[in-house]
Amino acid sequence: MKFISSKQKGDIFIFGVPYDASTCFYPGTRLAPQKIREMSYNLETFSPYTFLDLEDKNFVDLEDIEVNVIDPKDLFKRVYEFSKKQLDNFKKGVLIGGDHSTPIGFVKAIKEVYTKLVLIHFDAHADLRDIYLNSKYSHACFARRVLDFNIPTIQFGIRSFSQDEYKNFYKGNPSFEEEKLLFKNNIMFIKNWDILKEVVYLFKNQGYNFYISLDIDAFDPSFAPGTGTPEAGGMDPLSFFEFIKYLKKLKINLVGFDVVEVNPLLDSSNITSALASKIIREILLIM
Ligand SMILES: [Mn+2]
């Protein structure tokens, strides 16, 4: 099954990575790419936020890649090589996970094409561990690997981190402690939508390209219950759609996007998959 309104040719590719072996709690995110596509047939192709229509957007859903591997490092290599190949033909890409280990190789491939790249990481969890359960490519290491690729990273929605993550990245970080728009160790921590919009504006003016990584658990569990590690106190979908509207107005160059950690086995009435599906529609429209 392909995402609604997928075309034969286009500038943007979508692919699914049905992999959840690095998940530490409940498995099931491997089922998300198919479920999210299924839910797309419930959507209008026309957006009430941007007044754009998916029918007019040239993107190609390449469906799921083969991920018959256990080791997250093999998965990383596979996603990287696949993405690299696709970026010879396509300008931009969208990944549907899978757990948060799935986009690491994709981000690396994007960064090799777009050297001037900034990443916005929406998540409840810091994902800044260097190694987790013996792997550097675990879903708990996503943001740390992004920093290894030398990509300035803006985190939003984070409300769960270890004492080590706190000491190494947040403590003494002016963006964390005083909400100043300053990087420390290439990372900025933002809690407020208006400040996030200001940061995006500054990067856009410096000619940066954008990548957005969305862990669905950034949303409050009341909006997105279908995820393995729910964390109370999260963001709401309306604010996110408002943010996308702002990105459209600003005409940013959004070159990569992923949505991860949707778990259809833990979902209720498919509301989490439906949310992810709607977000993909909105993101495709502004790409
Ligand atoms: Mn998370």
What report would you give on this structure?
By secondary structure, the chain is an alpha/beta fold. It has one domain: Ureohydrolase domain (Arginase, Chain A), CATH 3.40.800. Helix content is 33%, strand content 16%. It is built from nine helices and eight strands. Strands 2-1-3-8-7-4-5-6 form an eight-stranded parallel beta sheet, sandwiched between helices. Helix 4 links the parallel strand 4 (117-122) and strand 5 (153-156). Helix 8 packs parallel to helix 9 (271-286). The radius of gyration is 17 Å and the shape is globular. The mean pLDDT is 96. Bound molecules: manganese (II) ion. Manganese (II) ion binds next to loops. Manganese (II) ion binds at residues 123-125, 215, 217, 229, 261.
